[in-house]
Amino acid sequence: MIIPEDQTKILKEKVLKIIAFISLKGGVAKTTDLLMMAAELASKGYKVLIADKDHQCNLTHYFGIYPNKGTIANVYTGGEVDIVSVAPNIDLIPGSMRLDEIERQLETNPNKNVFFYDWLDNNYQLMGLDEYDFLLIDCRPDFGTATKNAIAVSHAVICPVIPSDFSDQGKENLKLRLEAYRKEEIIRPSRESLITAKLFFLPSMISSTIKSKELMTILAEEDNVLNPIPQKELFNQTTKDNTIIDMKNNPKTYKKHQAFFDVLQNSLDSIIETLNQIA
To answer: What pLDDT is recorded for position 186?
Structure first.
């Protein structure tokens, strides 16, 4: 699709940093990593908005929210979109289990990939979006319309990668699809791509296993790899009221698992520094 240059609007000049969390397969700790980053940013005083673009709505349900109106689906169908406070410094745009159905309905719409772009632009000041420091978007594990909408507004795409037999294949597949998408969305008359997001790979669930070492060897060939997130059983014990960041900031828990938390903190600090440098 070719977009007139005067329709690229305010989003490319905003202070708000928009990060899409994307993977082409499930079970890679994508939502877990997003929640962890949101909690860490919030604990540092950043104001964070998170958006659930996965029709499974795991991000929304994590906070005990099961909405039947005001969801992100209204970005595509019209109507009000709610922003719900879910934790200190963290607000949520709830997901919709109808999002996959809506994607199918938009299939022949020539503007199907920029609905979220236009919605953000139209509501940037109206809904106080300019008050947020970060917007983190949880995407479904595919490269469909909702995911493309997220990429179109993002400064960065973070793809979690875990130790598995197909890690390299998934990594290369996403790189190819993202590059093809850059060529689809063109601004006239400059002929520049609307898609400017930088792709980063985030090694997750990393341990001392052979598969973890193999994954880190593969990723060593890339120049866009974030610091790894170590594996720890504590992740399975997290709740909305006791996140991994809450555990890290609890003196008793920190002392018991200091080595893990020190590695995690180093990675989180490095990731946040990288995200803050993105224009």
So the answer is: 81
